[in-house]
UniProtKB/TrEMBL annotation:
Annotated keywords: Membrane, Transmembrane, Transmembrane helix
Signal peptide interval: none
UniProt lineage: Bacteria, Pseudomonadati, Bacteroidota, Cytophagia, Cytophagales
Organism domain of life: Bacteria
TM region(s), chain numbering: 521-544
One Pfam family per UniProt: DUF7088
Species: Dyadobacter soli
Protein name according to UniProt: Gliding-associated putative ABC transporter substrate-binding component GldG
Domain DUF7088 positions: 33-143
Record domain ABC-type uncharacterised transport system: where: 189-486
Amino acid sequence: MKRNLTRFVLLVVVLAGINWLASSFFFRWDLTEDKRYSISDATKTLLTSLEKDVIVNVYLSGDFPAGFERLESATRETLEEFQTYANGHLIVNYSDPSAATSEEQRQKQYMSLIDRGLNPTNVFANEDGKRTEKIIFPGVIVQADTLSVPVQLLKGNKAGTPEEQLNQSYEGVEFELASAIRVLANPERKKVGFVVSHTKIPPARLSDMIATIQQSYDVFLDMNNPESYEGLDALIVMKPDSAFSDEEKYKLDQYVVGGGKALFFVDGARVDSVSLDGNYAQPLDLNLGDLFFKWGIRLNTNLVKDMNCAQILLNVGNVGDNPDIRPMPWRFFPLLNNFGQHKVTRNLNAVYTRFLSSIDTVGGANTIAKTPLLMTSPYTQLVNAPALVGYNEARKDPEPSEYRSGIKLAGVLLEGSFTSLFQNRILPGDPRAAKFKASGNTGKVIICSDGDLIVNDYDYKRNAPLPLGYDRVTKQTYGNKDFVLHALDYMTDANGLINARGKQIAIRALDKIQIQESRKFWQALNLLLPVALIGIFGALRYYLRIRKFG
């Protein structure tokens, strides 16, 4: 009896010790191979620094096919992990928008979510041999105080299979949620400048990009032509169509040499409409060629025709008295779906371009690393400017033998220590000599060879801008906006929240044929095996007791 009491007391002491250790030392251990339940250090820092309550309303809730159930589970598990580090400042609510007392109420809920920025998705399934359809909202709305941010969870590259797209969405849950929380937590906002004084693009066609960036950054336009760009965390040059002066080029040079972050969306050729039959492309000299060359980049004065392209609406004839307008492939509008291995472009949807030029890398400084971000397909053809771009081109069936120019670079990231183009040019008596930097801190530059990449279309009937990357013909929204936002995030985020986009979770697909053929076997095994094991254990225990006491 005394021996049993000693054992009991020892057990209580051990359990109390384990409980004290668990309450005093917090740790979590992710044993999965791909660390699917771990979050990045930058996300942990963001959550632990929350000073106000953030509410996450999840609308991906209910009965779904397996793929969406996996996305729902990933969202739930990620938010549970977030709550662990948020010190009680993260509140999560789950609701199913399709759950309503009447169809009228259901439609009202749907419209409310659409108005708040969430896009619905139609899910089809087979139930008892019948095809069913359900509208779901794979997204959440994150809110704090009176502000809210919609978050689309269903993302990824739409050129992939549904399983691949869902898996890419699964991988991006942490980044999408953390990015929305960061917007509302409102830490020190970074400053982003836009160089718009060299473009004739109407403000309405740049509005979507600027308005989106304004949600997370303080935005400055260069209308007052500042003496320098010092103090800006990033600078975006938006589709210039007139040459920069040497003084303006000097400011760009010194900003980058001083460790600045700059994004250039520039054209190699100007395309002007000359008639209803087509356009005329001519070389565009922005007076930036020597600066780019110093950095190791050459922007070519050509146009890229790509077999992987968007479509335009074209009058191909007449049907009676009416024109026959059809969507036709327009190879001067490449769809860029070939990306470099980088967090900025990981799991990105295709990027929509118009009259793209090619980029070449040249020698440049050894201190600058060059990373390809955007590339064409291998099936390209180059058209050197000047050239006439006729719309009849869309009517012709392409000859594959003419599209063998290979993969062309359309966007590149430059990182490292930049040397000034004006080195040995600034004399001691020059007023600029006192602040001149011949080389400096580590800077970052992204150059994309299509200014239209950040230009949104416009709906003149509704008098409203369309989303950046929206294609009128296919009604799809491509990945232009995500590319710019991820690039800007990478350039300015010293804490590295974008590292969460590096998470990789392998698809472990089941063999559907084997499942169908062996369904009954595995069902019986899962049903009977636990019962059999319990029976064996009970019989063995009974035998041992009989042997010991009998």
